[in-house]
Design goal:
heterodimer; A: alpha+beta; 4-stranded mixed beta sheet; 12 strands; globular; B: alpha/beta; Rossmann fold; 34% helix
């Protein structure tokens, strides 16, 4: 909801968007310019902090993923998979190739679900100059139905593989408590081919028609994502920076460097510069060479080029990788069926007790978990670094460059550009304000 | 008939819907009910409504009442009754989901909401004493709705 406190008078500007809509959680946009000098341009994060790290202490390794998957209702699968990988690393639990493939399938479903929701329900209304998705129900009902259909199919992947799409239940440390049936996987494959593919092509057509509404704004920054030699890295890989190259995920602390700022209950992060970007655009910039042909065709049609420095294009990068996820999901199902589904039991016999780090690409960017376990396999220390927190400094830096560039526009237009900018990052503020406890205690 | 819960059971009293479903399962009450837990994805409700039958949505809702108070209302009253609800999957609260479903012609004719006033919505497990005590009352309210639904002489009803 935008509230205009003052009108623009030349180079004086006072913008305060309280509780920005169409983002998850509560954030305010604050801009204060006096006599052409920008005093503030930032995203205030006002949500109350949460204490998941503290909640993890003393819990058994069976519980860690269950608790962390509750950090967020949107990002539960990403937290859960990351948590499982972290626990397995700390306890020396090997997992099978089938487990890895099923998890990759789950991540594809969650990525598609989140990206579709963001592109259609949160970003497209901006491109059509609507305050929400609701006017589209009357004017473009087929687009809304398509979005819901795509989201539903993405949810179905979660339901089939993990028991349920939100707060999944069958993925556990060491594997799965239930393996999907051949019929279930064949049905998913059929729906991906018969329904998701045409819907994806239609999505590209819809967005092609809206491309002119995407603001032109360039700011080169550091782009950080996972990178793998084998595939478009979502499930695992090295940490890769456009500035500094690749390092193993255990070095995540020096690739995040969290710090506290006064205007945010979520920590900020930086590496080589004052800020960096994570998420679909960072993945695109680092890993476009790993995308399938359909995704590359979509990127070409939508004007997304390697080395893109326009943060508003994050939404387009999300759509492009959604195409990749759908194609790769079919390929994974073929591999699983080709190898024959094995009724494996989870490997839950620890071979060591120590510290593990897990890094996964969740829809909004790299998610890190780190746990230390005692000899009873109970958590003694936990840390989680959330993508939205990593993007906050980058959003502030974007705003500081953007506001002077569009200062000749009306206050309402400037406000809309800023709101669209924040929404382009698809921020999950609920997730990002999950911890201040460590600093308070020390 | 279908009973649908929304809310995050790791957010204190926001888990009341899940708790109601758990109790229905455990006690065998309402044996004819199909149950669905949307957890924190209220948009999923649109796909899960029973277009023909009675639908009851159970949700923790700040209505400015005493903690544990359970109130039955119709979907068009949601925006009036609920001051805020925790579920905010990108701003899709219950009122927005009902609006969307209505606009798409997928809001079932027979739909009621049972709102439960929370005492605390903090990231922690477990319900407050007031909301725990409300769970059997919610089930009684659902049973009353089922009875009403069966006898009501309403052209929308089969």
């Amino acid at each position: 909801m935008s509230t205009a406190a003052e009108t623009t008078t030349g180079r004086n500007l006072d913008i305060k968007v309280k509780h920005l809509t169409r983002v998850e959680g509560h954030g305010n946009i604050v801009v204060d310019m006096k006599n052409g000098v920008l005093a503030r341009a930032e995203l205030e994060i006002v949500e109350a902090p949460r204490y998941f790290e503290a909640m993890l202490q003393g819990r058994s390794f069976h519980e860690a993923a269950i608790i962390t998957s509750r950090i967020c209702g949107i990002c539960s699968l990403g937290h859960q998979i990351t948590s499982l990988k972290t626990t397995e690393e700390a306890l020396g639990l090997e997992v099978s190739e089938q487990t890895v493939l099923l998890r990759k399938l789950l991540i594809h479903g969650a990525t598609m679900q989140s990206n579709v929701l963001h592109a259609y329900f949160l970003a497209v209304p901006d491109f059509l100059k609507q305050g929400s998705v609701f006017p589209l129900i009357g004017s473009h009902p087929e687009v809304v139905m398509r979005a819901l259909r795509m989201k539903r199919l993405a949810n179905d992947i979660g339901d089939v593989i993990s028991g349920r799409a939100v707060h999944p239940i069958t993925p556990v440390p060491g594997g799965f408590t239930r393996i999907p049936t051949v019929a279930e996987l064949e049905d998913l494959k059929r729906q991906l081919l018969d329904q998701m593919m045409p819907d994806l092509l239609a999505t590209v057509e819809t967005l092609k028609g809206l491309a002119a509404a995407i603001p032109v704004f360039e700011r080169e920054t550091e782009y950080i994502s996972l990178r793998s030699d084998d595939d478009y890295a979502l499930y695992d890989g090295d940490i890769c920076s456009t500035d500094t190259g690749r390092v193993p995920d255990r070095e995540y602390r020096r690739m995040t460097n969290e710090y506290i700022v006064p205007h945010s209950t979520s920590k900020h992060a930086k590496v080589s510069r004052s800020s960096y970007m994570v998420g679909a655009l960072a993945r695109w910039n680092n890993n476009h060479d790993r995308l399938c042909d359909l995704a590359l065709t979509a990127a070409g049609a939508l004007g997304l080029k390697p080395g893109c420095t326009n943060p508003y294009m994050n939404t387009i990068a999300q759509v492009v990788e959604t195409a990749h996820c759908a194609v790769d999901a079919v390929a994974i199902i073929d591999r699983l069926l080709g190898a024959g589904l094995k009724d494996e039991k989870p490997n839950q016999e620890p071979t060591r007790f120590g510290t593990g780090v897990g890094a996964t690409e969740v829809p909004r960017g790299i998610l890190y978990h780190e746990y230390t376990y005692d000899r009873q396999a109970r958590v003694v220390k936990a840390n989680a670094i959330i993508p939205t927190g990593q993007n906050l400094a980058n959003i502030d830096d974007d705003m500081k460059k953007l506001v002077p560039e569009i200062i000749d526009k009306s206050k309402a237009e400037i406000t809309l550009h800023l709101e669209m900018l924040v929404r382009a990052y698809d921020p999950c503020i609920s997730c990002s304000v999950h911890m201040l406890d460590v600093e308070f205690i020390e | 008939m279908r009973i649908l819960a929304v809310g995050n059971s790791f957010y204190g009293d926001d888990g009341v819907g899940t708790a109601v479903l758990d109790r229905i399962r455990a006690t065998g009450l309402l044996p004819d009910a199909e149950i669905f837990d949307a957890h924190s994805d209220p948009l999923a409700l649109i796909d899960e409504f029973d277009p023909e039958g009675l639908n009851v949505v159970v949700d923790a809702a700040d209505m400015g009442l005493e903690p544990g108070t359970a109130v039955v209302f119709r979907p068009e009253e949601v925006a009036l009754k609920i001051r805020s609800d925790r579920l905010s999957l990108h701003g899709f609260d219950l009122a927005a989901v009902f609006d969307l479903a209505r606009g798409l012609g997928r809001l079932p004719a027979r739909l009621v909401v049972v709102g439960v006033q929370p005492a605390a919505m903090d990231p922690d497990q477990g319900l407050s004493a007031a909301v725990t005590a409300a769970v059997p009352r919610v089930i009684s309210l659902i049973q009353a709705e089922v009875r009403k639904d069966g006898t009501e002489d309403d052209p929308r009803h089969r």
